[in-house]
Design goal:
The chain folds into 2 domains: 113 residues, Roll (Urease, subunit C, domain 1); 313 residues, Metal-dependent hydrolases (TIM Barrel, Alpha-Beta Barrel), CATH 3.20.20.140. Helices cover 34% and strands 18% of the residues. By secondary structure, it is of the alpha/beta class. It contains 14 helices and 18 strands.
Length: 439
């Protein structure tokens, strides 16, 4: 064959980007693509997945399906990247009871399966993990997971007798001298982030002093680690931004964020890593029977014992009689307003739920969070990009977050368009992680 013709053939093959079949190959066709980048949805799309990665993606009219590939016709459906939840707590809650003893390998894996079944294909576990998590994470990264991918902050830092953490997992610190060896121990485990709690739960606990938060941040940076903080107060957000924090895992809830904080966050590249709006709403949702208790989308992810507890008038009365119960709705509204203000100002943000503790449900909470983000004033596209592309960027996960050539085929197939109504993220037809369907 003449050299010029060979060259033209090579160009054509490159254009269609169809690699030769090397193993397990899947073809998806005739769907509307929401690729996670923020681009408008593209109808009549197709995708070739080879050994878990996207080998080709483009118009169905240009599809050249490899011989012998498994093919799925997704006419009328919408395909988007799997959701990335940047704030979860894994494995400690069973039937609404939270205990570190619950964090067995079986429960941790089951929790990750539950997230996956709701289209959450990656989670960031936020500082309450047993050492088992490192085994799970490392095995995932060495192969192709069949449950939600996990990132971890290991065992986060709690001030002595202060708010936060999980008894039996988190040790408490009280002096600056304790910080370097404690951070070094987390770094030796190869945590993905360092996390600490800066809160006094409305004055009911002692709060971490700034000299300790500064020591944590400086030590983490020496070990090449980014640092995340649980915060509540505007003053703490300002101080931690000055100290070099990487991101906040909740919205400011005591006061409106001001231009000084916005300017400082921009200057230092601080993220609103997660706003956890659904967490704030859940704090007062169970003083009565929640409307979603009969929703099949919710029920399928929880135990009968959980349904009974959420329906209990005695439990509802106890919750509603809490001294802080009446203040939670205002905290929720403040969280939404502050989040929207940061988004409008150009602060980087992801999506996170604080799911895991009792009343904050794996998987279901992510769709609650997306709804709350839209209720706060974001568009459905902004919410989805936060929960896909932006989440991956924050994690530094270059192979995740968008549906593009060479990335992992972590995706959700929907029966309805989430751009028209964010509730349509719940219309899940199928979920794939690394090209494998989740059953």
């Amino acid at each position: 064959m003449p050299a010029r013709r060979l060259f033209r053939l090579a160009v054509v093959c490159s254009f269609f980007a169809v690699a030769p079949v090397q193993g397990e190959v899947l073809v998806l066709r005739n769907f509307t693509l929401i690729d996670g980048t923020g681009k408008a949805p593209i109808a009549q799309s197709a995708m070739v997945v080879d050994n878990g990665r996207i080998a080709w993606i483009g118009p169905v009219s240009q599809l050249k399906p490899p011989s012998g590939a498994e093919t799925a016709d997704l006419t009328g459906k919408f395909v988007m990247p799997g959701l990335i939840d940047l704030h979860v707590h894994l494995g400690a809650t069973v039937d609404m009871v939270q205990d570190a003893k619950n964090q067995t390998l079986e429960n941790l894996q089951q929790n990750l399966k539950t997230y996956a079944s709701y289209g959450v294909t990656t989670v960031m576990s936020m500082g309450t993990d047993p050492d088992l998590i490192f085994k799970i994470r490392d095995e995932q990264r060495a192969g192709r997971p069949s449950v939600a991918r996990v990132y971890t902050a290991g065992q986060g830092f709690v001030f002595k007798n202060g708010y936060g953490g999980l008894v039996g997992v988190n040790s408490q610190v009280s002096t600056v001298s304790e910080i370097e060896p404690a951070v070094a121990a987390q770094a030796a485990k190869k945590v993905d982030f360092i996390k600490f709690w800066m809160d006094d739960d409305q004055g009911t606990f002692p709060k971490m002093p700034y000299e300790i938060s500064q020591a944590i941040i400086q030590s983490a940076h020496r070990h090449g680690l980014r640092v995340l903080a649980h915060i509540f107060y505007l003053a703490d957000a300002k101080k931690l931004t000055e100290q070099g924090i990487s991101g906040f895992v909740h919205s400011v809830r005591d006061a409106p964020v001001d231009q000084a904080l916005i300017d400082a966050m921009k200057k230092h590249g601080v993220w609103q890593e997660s706003a956890t709006l659904s967490r704030e709403e859940s704090m007062f949702a169970y003083g009565k029977t929640p409307e979603f208790i009969a929703d099949p989308f919710f029920v399928r992810g929880v135990s009968p014992a959980t349904i009974r507890l959420l329906s209990s008038p005695e439990r509802q009365k106890t919750i509603a009689s809490s001294p802080l119960y009446g203040r939670y709705p205002s905290f929720f509204e403040m969280a939404k307003k502050n989040f929207k203000k940061l988004v409008d100002a150009g602060i980087r943000y992801g999506m996170g739920t604080d799911t895991g503790p009792p009343g904050r449900f794996a998987g279901y909470g992510d769709h609650w969070e997306l709804q709350a983000m839209v209720d706060a004033g974001l568009t459905p596209m902004q919410a989805i990009v936060a929960a896909t592309k932006s989440g991956a960027e924050f994690l530094g996960a270059k192979d995740l977050g968008t549906l593009e050539k060479s990335k992992w085929a972590d995706l959700v197939v929907l029966n309805a368009n989430p751009m028209e109504n964010i509730l349509n993220t719940r219309a899940i037809s199928a979920v794939y992680i690394a090209g494998k369907p989740i059953h």
